[in-house]
Amino acid sequence: MAEELVLERCELELEANGRDHHTADLCREKLVVRRGQAFRLTLYFQDRGYEASVDRLTFNAATGPAPTQDACTKACFPLSEAYEEGAWSATVVDQQEGILWLQFSTPANAPVGLYQLVLETSTGYQGSSFMLGHFTLLFNPWCPADAVYLESEEERREYVLTQQGFIYQGSAKFIKSIPWNFGQFEDGILDICLMLLDVNPKFLKNSGKDCSRRSRPVYVGRVVSAMVNCNDDQGVLQGRWDNNYGDGVSPMFWSGSVDILRRWKDFGCQRVKYGQCWVFAAVACTVLRCLGIPTRVVTNYNSAHDQNSNLLIEYFRNEFGEVQGDKSEMIWNFHCWVESWMTRPDLQPGYEGWQALDPTPQEKSEGTYCCGPVPVRAIKEGDLTPKYDAPFVFAEVNADVVDWIRQADGSMHKSVNHSLIVGLKISTKRVGRDEREDITHTYKYPEGSAEEREAFTKANHMNKLVEKEETGMAMRIRVAESMSLGSDFDVFAHISNNTTEEHTCSLLLCARTVSYNGVLGPECGTEHISDLALEPYSEKSVPLRILYEKYCDCLTESNLIKVRGLLVEPASNNYLLAERDIYLENPEIKIRILGEPKQNRKLVAEVSLRNPLMVPLSGCIFSVEGAGLTQEHKIVMVEDPIEAGEEIKVRVDLLPQFVGRHKLVVNFDSDKLKSVKGFRNVIIGPP
């Protein structure tokens, strides 16, 4: 009788598997592979080698606290003759003396997560069990059988492997790109993403069912959408929009997801303070990319928050045009969410592809603060029936806005506001380039087209089918090319009379600071003309001067000022409303790289900024991060105030770990100048 087969050790082949599975950054200390694709292990035996005629080898792979074969969280499979695609299997690649080279395959629909792999050997009547090790199984956009398969290699690189990008802010007329460090392959982030799945309420209620459902990207996306906010659970971020961030970190201060996720883990899954929409979206993007689901952050300008799903936002204003009463339904200056790429076997054909997911806690979905995934295609077609939350997302890009103005006698007058179209300039980073891509056409047909009318009819959105009333008068707010924070500037109400008659009107121009979610701050400029004569077929520009001394103390970190014009013609009882959000540009952060950019060689980044204000800046802080360039968030505090017009320079040490193109992201903060962002691309060569 042959002596028992004894395993000495198992080699996980981290380098080769990491390279083949596009997980090299994750495979430094542990095995991380993608489902539906083969990986290799090498077994070393004591005393004697494996003999096919004598020894029987069986493998057990299991995930979750209570794995079962019925739930597909456990698989038992023997060493087989041939490689079986789409199933758990193990085959011999090569053999010599006491060494056995094996190839394992996994199903393309296996649940993702941390697995343990056990070998059971039997020789005659003798048997033994050996722990081979643990591996993490991820979604696989490179595998055609996987629900997240993405055909384009360039898109897979951008939406799964790229660790830096841009998030778009500002206003529809002045789009501002903010650099962001997603850092999904940074140390510890994968473990944090798996922990996030393991503290979600569905796992705590029924871990077996939850782990089994992790085979479906629709389910995982929904869990991530709920867990990035902390409204119902031990989620990552707490939202706050009132400009009082003293007991935490201002949402504008963050420049990456890594610090946020690490803080959440290090403090025992305590909520991180604070987030707003782009922070929620960016953290969700990090988690989903890390798990292998192709994901991108998108920004929608003039985004409607429609609570009651009537696809209508109604503003009730006083005679000065100021919004009164309930402000729960608002037009956000911009709003960010994510799109993830996946099939939708739970829906009719044609709804695969990009799905909108929104982790910002706004309204509950099936009792939980999450939103999506909903097919972007369904939104475009006006089909509000598919899961999940189609009416809410449809309203974000398509709601109608009606302004009611209360007159002196108490009656309400419906006013015309041509300046506000919901759902503009929907933006994401272009694949492979540091540029913006406009993806509005994926959500909406062209304004006024037959297809648009058809989509609105389908959505039963009859408001849109009523033609806007025309008065022959028009007004819009015009501005200079660009306006810098710290400067005084003019804005103009540009009024045109396209009728054969002269009109005598009153004009009220008002500027107020505003948060990106539409909440107004104090007034910072006003102009009232009671008798404005408008001759037939004429145009007039009325200026409003906005002074730094008036807006400096009440400007929010969004750097936005809302200018509103209300033109009233008492004779015909006509009201004309125009609004525009103005973004004030921050100064430029300059970044120089000193030294030769090589892997594992020390580099220095010289970061500088000039104070654009007429007053000194104190409490100045630079924070620097960049996946592959620095292992942690670095902070440099400037002790002395920066005088008006003075340039400050600081230096930060870097130690690049990986070859290739990386982004160094910088944030500057002070008492009077907040959340100034800058970035620099750095190409690291081999050592």
Features:
alpha+beta; 687 residues; 13 helices; elongated; 37 strands; 6-stranded antiparallel sheet
What does this structure look like?
There is one protein chain. With 687 residues, this protein is α+β, with helices and mostly antiparallel strands. Helix content is 15%, strand content 41%. The strands form nine sheets. It has a nine-stranded mixed β-sheet, covered by helices on one side. Helix 3 (189-198) packs across helix 7 (258-266).
Largest sheet: 9 strands, mixed
Shape: elongated
| Rg over C-alpha atoms, rounded to the nearest angstrom | 29 Å
How much helical structure, as a percent, in the residues?
10-25%
Main sheet: strand order: 1-3-7-6-5-4-8-9-2
Helices and strands: which structural class?
Answer: alpha+beta
* Uncertain residue segments: none
Separate helix tally: 13
On the 0 to 100 scale, the average pLDDT is 91
Number of strands: 37
**How far is the N terminus from the C terminus?**
55 Å
Q: What share of the residues does DSSP label as strand, in percent?
A: 35-45%
Concise overview:
The chain has 687 residues and is α+β, with helices and mostly antiparallel strands. Helix 3 (189-198) crosses helix 7.
List the helices and strands and how they pair.
Elements: E1 6-11, H1 14-20, E2 31-34, E3 39-46, E4 55-63, E5 74-80, E6 89-96, E7 99-105, E8 113-123, E9 126-138, H2 153-161, E10 164-171, E11 174-181, H3 189-198, H4 201-205, H5 207-213, H6 217-227, E12 237-239, H7 258-266, E13 272-275, H8 277-291, E14 295-305, E15 312-317, E16 330-342, E17 353-357, E18 374-375, H9 376-381, H10 390-398, E19 400-406, E20 412-415, E21 424-429, E22 436-438, H11 440-443, H12 450-458, E23 473-479, E24 483-484, E25 489-497, E26 503-514, E27 520-534, E28 538-546, H13 548-551, E29 560-569, E30 574-585, E31 589-594, E32 603-610, E33 620-625, E34 634-638, E35 647-654, E36 660-669, E37 676-684
Parallel strand pairs: 2-9, 5-6, 12-13, 15-19, 24-30
Antiparallel strand pairs: 1-3, 3-7, 4-5, 4-8, 6-7, 8-9, 10-11, 14-16, 14-21, 16-17, 17-18, 19-20, 21-22, 23-25, 25-28, 26-27, 26-29, 29-30, 31-32, 32-35, 33-34, 33-36, 36-37
Helix pairs in contact: 3-7
